[in-house]
Amino acid sequence: MVIYGVALLSFCTIVGLYIGDLLGIAIGVQANVGGVGFGMLLVILGSNWLTRREGITPATAQGIAFWNAIYIPIVVAVAAQQNVAGALSGGAVAILAGVLAVVACAALVPAIDRLSRKRPAADAHAARVELVR
Amino acid sequence: MTQTFVDIVQRNSLVAGFAVIGAIVWVSYLISNRLTNGRIHGSAIAIFIGLVLAWIGGVLTGGERGLADVPVFAGVALLGGAMLRDFAVIATAYGVDLAEMRKAGFSGTVSLLVGVVGSFVVGAAIAWVFGYRDAVSLTTLGAGANTFIVGPITGAAIGASSDLIALSIAAGLTKSILVMTATPFAARAIGLDNPQTAMVFGGLMGTTSGVAGGLAATDPKLVPYGAMTATFYTGLGCLLCPSVLFLGLRALVE
């Protein structure tokens, strides 16, 4: 049933956002901390659990796939309601702060990315050592 | 007759929103295929057109919600609002490889910390260059360089004036818009073509809308990985900016 897929998504979304809000309250910030991330984890765990238990029927998967596919149009709608005029009228200090923050962080992507890259290499090395033994 | 049509559209705003966004996407893929030979991704063009329409809407109405402030296009607000955005982002997690996520766990966490502190420092430094000298102004603008949510929350917490808060929102919006539009062009230079790098990218940039849009225009398969880390960024920023970072900055300038 298509509704099972949609219902699974909505359950995971609500519970995930709830966890995010609770976490925000617990650490004393007025924001949702990782709600969407927890929701995503629940979808991953939930779909794995369902697959193992009785399998996800194609119809159920369709209920998830639709929202997965409608995601980019939704992002376009998100873009269409940004306060672009407000951002541009914010003045040079706001625009420069935003632009340079992006440039600086983008430049750091390769460096931080390497932190985790080392480990697979070490694993490969360990595996080779195992093999030699 | 026109009035009847407008009434129908307004009463069925969400449904009309699907038609509006569908038209934008159709035109975008036409431009992508005919004018750029598919070199610039259709969704990148669609997001850009969305931003241009948002700018036009903002200029026409003087409102804060872009195209959605034009009554006929109110459905765009519902379609692109936080509710459906979060729902659709969470849907992208279906089929995600948990092992990939675990592999990038460490660098993803580091990227969040570096992203929040790094953007804060850059924002505060720019504010300093423009003549701001008090810790409250510097912190509010530094927080604005995090995301357009961290800026106002931090500003309100430390007692910044409303024009400063408006500036911090503008800084965050600039960031979000730039990430949406520039990511496809910067992707190759920063090696953004795999799930692990996408997680680092999401943690460093932090703006959920920006990361989601930018990755969608680069490679939709990367969206869930970038969104996963980005979703923790605003919370971390709201935690660090008005506390540790504010106190540290105040000790430095006063």
Number of strands of chain B: 0
**Largest protein interface, residues of each chain:** A-B, 80 and 115 residues
Unreliable spans of chain B are none
Helix content of chain A: over 70%
Would you kindly provide a written description of the structure presented here, covering whatever features stand out?
The complex is a heterodimer of chains A (133) and B (254). Chain A has 133 residues and is mostly helical. Chain A folds into two domains: 1-82, no CATH class; 84-133. In chain A, 84% of the residues lie in helices and 0% in strands. In chain A, helix 1 crosses helix 2 and helix 1 (2-26) packs across helix 3 (58-69). The longest helix of chain A has 41 residues, at 92-132. The radius of gyration of chain A is 22 Å and the shape is extended. Chain B has helices spanning 2-11, 13-35, 42-61, 75-79, 82-91, 98-103, 105-129, 135-144, 150-158, 162-186, 195-205, 208-218, 223-253. Chain B folds into two domains: 2-80, no CATH class; 98-253, no CATH class. The N and C termini of chain B lie far apart (66 Å). In chain B, helix 7 (105-129) packs parallel to helix 11 (195-205). Chain B has 13 helices and no strands. At the A-B interface, helix 1, helix 2, helix 3, helix 4 and helix 5 of A face helix 2, helix 3, helix 4, helix 5 and helix 7 of B.
Write the layout of secondary structure elements.
The complex is a heterodimer of chains A (133) and B (254).
Chain A: H1 2-26, H2 35-53, H3 58-69, H4 71-80, H5 84-88, H6 92-132
Chain B: H1 2-11, H2 13-35, H3 42-61, H4 75-79, H5 82-91, H6 98-103, H7 105-129, H8 135-144, H9 150-158, H10 162-186, H11 195-205, H12 208-218, H13 223-253
Helix pairs in contact in B: 2-3, 3-10, 3-12, 7-8, 7-11, 7-13, 8-9, 8-10, 8-13, 9-10, 9-13, 10-12, 11-12, 11-13, 12-13
